[in-house]
Amino acid sequence: MSILQAPKPQSVAAADTRGRQVFTPARVVVAVIGLLISVLIGYPLLRVLAGIVWVDGRLSTAAITETLALPELGVVLRDTTIVVVSAVAIALFVGSLFAWLNERTDARMGVLTDVLPIVNFLMPGIATAVGWLLLLSSQAGYVNKVLRAVLNSVFGMDLKSGPLSAHSWYAVIGVYALTLVPFVYLVVSAGLRNIDSRLEEQSRMCGAGTLTTLRRVTLPALRPSFLSASFLAVWFGFAIFSVPVVLAEPAGIQIISVRIVHMLTETYPPKTAVAIGLSLVILVSLAAIWMLQQKSIRSQRSAMLGGKGAGTGRIPLGRLRIWARLAMLAYLIFAVVLPLSALVLVSFNGFWGNIRWTELSVAPFLDVLSKPANFAAVQNSLVFALIVATVAMLLSACMAWAAVTSPGRLSQVAAAIAKVPAAVPPIVIGVGIVLAVAGPPFFLGGTALILILGFLIVAMPEASITSEAAVGQVGHELGHASALSGASPLRTFRSVYLPLMMPGLAAGWTLIFVRIMADVEMSVLLASTGTPVIGFQLLSIFEGSGGYAELAALALFVTITSITMVTIVLSTTAALQRRRSR
Amino acid sequence: MSVTATTAIPATSPDSDAGPALSIRQLKKVFHRPGGQDVPAVDDTTMDVAKGELLVLLGASGCGKSTFLRCIAGLETPDSGVIESHGRIWYSSQDRMLVPPERRDLSMIFQSYALWPHMTIRDNVAYPLTVGKKRPSRTEIRERVDDVLRMMGIENLAEQYPAQISGGQQQRVALARALVRGSEIVLFDEPLSNVDARVRDQLRTEIRAMQQRLGFTAIYVTHDQEEALAIADRIAVIDHGVVAHLGTPREVYLAPANLRVARFVGKLNEVDGVVSSVEGGRVTVRTDIGEVVAGSAQEGLAVGDPAVAVWRPDRVRLGGGTSGPNSWDGVVTSSHFFGSFTDTKVAVAGVTVLTWDLGDCPQPIQGSVRFSVAPDDVRALKPMP
Fold this sequence. Notes:
The structure holds 2 protein chains of 2 kinds. Chain A has helices spanning 25-51, 62-68, 73-104, 110-115, 119-122, 125-136, 142-154, 169-194, 197-205, 210-221, 223-239, 242-248, 256-265, 272-298, 320-349, 362-370, 372-405, 409-419, 426-438, 448-472, 476-484, 489-517, 521-526, 534-543, 548-581, and strands at residues 54-55, 58-59. By secondary structure, chain A is an all-alpha fold. Chain A has 2 domains: 31-57 and 361-582, MetI-like (MetI-like fold), CATH 1.10.3720.10; 61-336, MetI-like (MetI-like fold, Orthogonal Bundle), CATH 1.10.3720. Chain A is globular, with a radius of gyration of 26 Å. Mean pLDDT of chain A is 80; it is low at 1-20 and 301-312. By secondary structure, chain B is an alpha+beta fold. Chain B has a 6-stranded mixed beta sheet with strand order 7-8-9-3-10-11, sandwiched between helices. In chain B, strands 14-13-12-16-22-15 form a 6-stranded mixed beta sheet, with no helix packed on it. In chain B, helix 2 crosses helix 3.
């Protein structure tokens, strides 16, 4: 590559007709990484789409006809809709209420409030699901045991099992809702922060009470936020796999994501056509909801409302404050404390049954982890998470930097493609990867590489978004000042951009690491007994021979890793910021 | 600040003394608005900047002065034209040459200071010495950084981080960083608009003193006409991407090229009329307040042309028994004491004339007053289209 050489008048530099440089390092980075990302993401997704008309090497409508002929199709669609819609409705109410309580009233509770939006990163879905299984199972579930003890002794009842069940509509919808609340909370509280609180104060000055103001001013202004929150929650509702596989499937509640996986993994030969057909059902539903959201946002002006939120006076709740706080505390207990306690008790007891409080120890937990199959899974997950988080952040950091230093259509397209996987549930991407590279000519099925590719694809949107945010925080002039000091573009990246982007990149890295450690969706489709990962191992234990202690121990390990990583990164970046501005 | 400290900053020594420090030929840069509209930010600009000169680019915001500066820096790629420094081509659309900013050997001071928040003040200032092709030894870097910090009076801040010091101090660090490499050309992009008025005056004086002492060539962008007049060797008034006037502060202030420049550079008295005679350099304009004799005129004004007679308020003499040309009797409509001068408005035949005099005694309102302005202080200009 001929970058501009010493500024001799005769030297003809690589430039286009208007004298612009063609081969700047930034442009080369954009081109190479952009191409890589496009192929990596585009190929499997196109493979799914092509699969609709191209089955087993020839043109066919099997994907559609076989899917429509599926006897349980109606039930699957009905059950999935019931669960997703009810859970989203509950999450929308609870999440919005918490957002309003925290942003506008005096019910805030310091650190506990800050934990609310990151609950899902501390407590992965699979851990919550297993935790609630251990709590609500009709025979041995801890909650049921406590309830039975109370009901039998106080009310003289004679219950042998129940009264609650983990494999029930309310358990499934409840746990779905628990995992959806943080999404709603994040979006709505951001919306509230963007609505000038003076708008609400003005309403109260006009004589409207708190509730009237909420109804007439705040809620209408929040409509766009509610729409985005619903969309995000529905999207995630469709994508969740670990909750339905652990709680819904045994209850006979048929959820579409579980069906897709079963078509590919539990039948032989795999019913690829039907898996594609069902994936298409998800994609079409999401597209429809997305269009609805876009139309709805365009048709109203409330999105324009407000300026900067001026965090002025909070509404005093008076006697209601304690109840508001209890409600938020209850959420945290249901979402984190109870399931985590169940995991700890079972893992440290070594079995699921009557707790022997005096004999709790770390030994059974470590025993489980050191079993060869589990150990291999843990080791693989750690290695893959490490590799993928690092590669994804490195690629996206380079891309984001190149897009800033050399903006153009090329970088815009690459940045857009990097975010495409966010719009497609991991299960569907997994199906695409299986179709694309598991068989001939690549034969990557069951290898470590196919897992790394899969994880990398689902990690790209997160990596790309956090990197762009990190670059965005570095003012352009800081980079210009370095170039004018005589530093080469790469030196500018190394000495100015990279260190300043580091806190953001570290946060992105952690999110990806934690997500891969806790992944079930990709793992169940791409891993094998040859290269197991935690998610794969968890499901094999659940559906196979293993015991609940093993299940709990693996889920607990994932949770501990998540909590540790998130805490370390959050506290070190905060400490670094403090040092520079003290 | 002490400007007597000894310094190890190398005197600027260009590789060759061929040609001016900067030579710009027919430079063009057009921005394409999303609506499809083209906005020329730099429109066919040609100028030379002499070695050791301080040239101010003055203009309203959005006039293209910053884009022009950024083209010189290499941060913006022009559409066509030539930029040359001492005979070395930095940009030439014809030869398809473009030297990136890091190879241009110039320094720039940004409005936002652009100090790297993760480096100490010492590391910020040392940076330009540690990244180039020719890197001095560690001890030399340390000496040069210490010298420039001492010169800027901020040696005690060396180990602090930028977020820990004040705006004025940050500006000094930015200046130190720009000077440490001994670049021959230093670009200033509205460097003082973020500091408060008192610090601004002081820093402006320091920048000028430093520039004269070290002898670097400076191009200084500002929208503040007072700052421009105070600091410049020459001022280029930029208007819609075009250099409307290039001249010394005195020329720009007293003999502006056109009415727009005249208005931009300072307060102005304007009286509309028609040219009644042109004799030698003198132009007489017939107006509502009588004949106004102008000692100079915009090129191309002929008898019968519409014209505007303009003069600065500080050139008006109040009171006294002057009779000659350009003397009028008027009625005082307002008079305010502003500390260093008194601002008085006088009405004559429906025209309000603004006057500034150094007296500290406001005129009685509605009182009658005689005032005059010397023909040499009046200029006849074409009206704005």
